[in-house]
Fold this protein.
Amino acid sequence: MKKCLVALGAAALMTWGAVCAAQEAKPAADPALKTQKDKVSYIIGLNMGRSMKADNIEIDTDLLARGIKDALAGKAAMSDEQVQETMMAFQREMMEKQMAVAREAGEKNKKEGEAFLAQNAKKPGVKTTASGLQHLVVKEGAGAMPKADDVVKVQYRGTLIDGTEFDSSYARNNQPVTFPVNRVIPGWSEGVQLMKVGGTSKFFIPAKLAYGESGAGGQIGPNATLIFDVELLGIEPKEKPAEEKAADPKAAPKKK
């Protein structure tokens, strides 16, 4: 609460105090939740409700409770065939809604991405390749440039155009990542091959060179334009094919 006492005026103090009180407030003990059975029953219902809310499923809570009671009592108001038919129709309806939401989000992301890239291309130092990738050299490297069949070691941070961070090697205990250049999204693969070891660049990747209409995970939506800060630390030594290893006298087993 000490932080809550720091304010520049009476009004600010009152507002900040209210925020702190809300942050520190804990749910009062519910007299209905006495036993372990009570608490487990409530938690199961709570988790079901949260899941339905997250999936935007509209339900009648009274009928939901009735369905649970009927199931526990070994009876049902609908046949198995009716249940299957109804749920199949419900799944189709949910898929249609999700597809509509994805299309709307994709159109929005596409327009915003195109506008962002159009303005970004005008900034000093930003170069645009034939594919549409935009890159900016932050620090010029002095080492070799990787090829498509190389494995590279990098540090990176990925954000959306609004600044939302969705991935970062720095955030994972600052551990560098190694990967084959030709096994990542096209914008990454192309961008890394424009760098020299020891250098740092920014990639501005249009959706067509990233995850396209499908997006990726919960944060990268459909048609999302991505920004990556990339530090190329090195190119990993290539492993010799098995036949070359066998012919290499240094690789041959030594006699004891």
In short: Helices lie at 10-24, 36-54, 61-73, 80-120, 186-192, 242-247. Strands lie at 126-128, 134-139, 151-160, 165-168, 177-180, 200-205, 226-235.
